[in-house]
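Good morning C.,

I know you're traveling, so I'll keep this short. The sequence:
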Amino acid sequence: MMFAPTMSMPAAAESGALHAALWGLLAGSALVLGAAIGWFVRVPTRAIAAIMAFGSGVLISALSFELMDEAYRAGGFWACAGGFLGGAALFTLASWLLARRGAKHRKRSGEQQPSEAQHEGSGLAIALGALLDGIPESMVIGLSLLQGGAVSTVAVVAIFLSNLPEGLSSATGMKRANRSARYVLGVWVVIAALSSVASWVGYVAFGGVSPHVVSAVMAVAAGAILAMLVDTMIPEAFEEAHGLTGIITVAGFLTRFGLSKLG
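The tokens, ready to paste straight into the viewer:
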């Protein structure tokens, strides 16, 4: 299902930016929902791991069939490949810097996350790390609106389904690191709001630019998302789910693939 504005060009551009922001906020709200569940409901760690594996499969499918394919068609192989590798490199460098400040286990639901007493400044690093994980996904919404003139509900659903376990797992780990409910929920509310801003920026900043540039930016987002999956989500999934991780990830992949074809 697609939603497209039908009005004069300036008004359409304003409406498109607003649509991007609202859809980004909707997708980002899954982080808050997941964090609330992680804080108020005692969810077994194996269940959290299974949800993380499912979310990973959803994102792998999205970046394979939507981001990379669209990036290739818009800008060709070299723009796509350069952006993909560049996005992965940028994410890896930023994640490494944050890990040195206490954010290495920001997606873990166990007791791996350090408390502020154990590692001063780790709270801020974890918050920045969570933001780093979410920005590429959010920008994709704005970019997809530019590419097709409308936002696909499939893309929003895919990001929503992957954000839910991210918030759930990370908030559970924050709680076990003795961080307050105000801190945990506040972090995810702010990140959800910034996700909306990122979607808006993705639409506004790249409107009217060369298809090769849009291609490269979409590929950068795809590379960052894949690096994030391998760096944060999949390790958490395998830590608890072990041998079931593969089949659950495949189920997530197939779910998103099916949504795209049925949609």
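Safe travels,
E.
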